[in-house]
Amino acid sequence: MNRDEALSLLKKYVRSEKMLYHCYSSEAVMRALAKKLDRNVEKWGLAGLLHDIDSKITNADPKKHGLVAVDLLLDEGINAEIVDAIKMHNEEATGLERKTEFQHALAAGETITGLIYATALVYPDKKIKDVKTKSVTKRMKQSAFAASVSRENIMECEKIGLSLNDFTEIALNAMKEIAEDIGV
Known about the structure:
- The protein is mainly α.
- It is built from 10 helices and no strands.
- The chain has helices at residues 3-13, 17-37, 41-50, 67-75, 80-88, 91-94, 101-121, 133-140, 151-154, 164-177.
């Protein structure tokens, strides 16, 4: 499946502009990580784009989210590795621990987008262009800031061989490249 087909599929199931922005952000981060780690950029990008495709269907229920996506995506012919990473981005639903680089990258990559977005919103102009890596990493230590963002998931960046600082810089720059598409 190419990106245009995946985008059409995503929009069939996800109507929320905010959720679409999150998916676009996750795609950009995953593509940037794949480039950095010399992995398949298209495959990693599709995982980022489609990882929350079942969020409306499951009402983001942590016991179901990701699992419903499995059948939906396999029926659409999505690569099994992509489907596995999507399933595993929500460990709570599977009861299993993430083990592969791809699984860790998606869990960390999609999660940091929320912290970056929240950081941008505290800036006077609410634009990501002015956000610095240091601002995001500083907010990692403030558990009350963007409290729903799992710092533990973000720290899985270390399991793919990246420091928090390097990971944040890659993610932030990826989101800056698509700032107009994600409303910040």
